[in-house]
UniProtKB/TrEMBL annotation:
Residue ranges of domain Ice-binding protein C-terminal in the record: 335-358
Keyword field contains Signal: yes
Entry superkingdom: Bacteria
Protein name according to UniProt: Ice-binding protein C-terminal domain-containing protein
Keyword Repeat: no
Signal peptide range: 1-21
Alphabetical keyword list: Signal
InterPro entries: Ice-binding_C
Amino acid sequence: MAHLRLAAALTLALSIFGSHADAGVVLDYSDTTFFDGSSTVRVKAKAALEAAVADINAVIDFNLGAITNDVVTGTSGSTTATIDFRYGYRNPTTNATVEVPNTTMPANEFRIFVGMRPLSGSTLGQGGPGSVGAGFGASGFFNPGEAQAAVTAAAAASEHRRGDGPVMATLSGTVFGSPNDSAYSIEFGPTIGNLWFDDDVDNLGGSDGDAALDSFWHFDHTTAVDAGKNDFYSVALHETLHALGVGGSETWDSLVTNGTDWTGAEAIAEIGSGIGLIDAGGAHITDGTMSFRLSDGMAQEVVMDPSIFTGTRKSLTTLDAAFLRDLNYTTQITAVPEPSSLLAMTLAGAGTGLLRRRKPSHRKTRC
């Protein structure tokens, strides 16, 4: 079996769009036609993607505040400062940057724009959170003290932190210039992301047809993964968690020290130590790290390590859930195994991992 590398593409993206009946991760297909149900392959692919998102939604209690004020104002004396927020995301089919000027959003919703596009080399898929921006303005009688107070009041009125989840990014700087130079700092929580899968399975630079994709991807999440195929469901789990801030948020970065050590209390309590728990690339749990599946308690490599074998499937584990809690998400998972037993199992798994890397050459090894 070939060992598939999973790599985070920390592309930034954000946008908004009207309420949705379901809380949690919501998939947006507006930039793709692949998941249109026009063939059996596409029906299965969409079902696998939505099953992965449903499993994540079943684990995370999304307690995200609504964003109702796309434009915020703050007043001090006769000066009014205005902040007009905007988001951006990567079109999952073309990779073009899309700006979304209206940033209002329902409570508890995190929207991911999904698609398929050719990816070079050994990349299976990419996912990440979104970008943020803002325009600033002021009116009224302008003086230095009032300008700063008005900007501070406007920033405090922002709803973009949303409560739970990681800090994805912080927008900070100064506006208006001397002598009215005014500083601002605004935190942004989980809002939207983007996710795409490779549809160039022969690496010739173009999108391949359904038959070629079906020979490379295992789309049916209800059946065991065919030998030599790459499990679409597993990659969808992995990349959706990247979009939610695993490996690509300010909170994640703040919990990584010395390049590979994790300081989050939940993961440490789960596995017994945070030393060397992060992959050298900084965006994954260390390759070969073991945990227990939430579905049946069986041992499995974590979803968020950088590897998966062809012909196999991963599902969410207790350690994946612990990392989510360290990122300030609330999860349904409370019972964890004894740290000593899990740490021992992880070390044993890391030892056998070297054998698993002695493999025949396969084109696709990363996502």
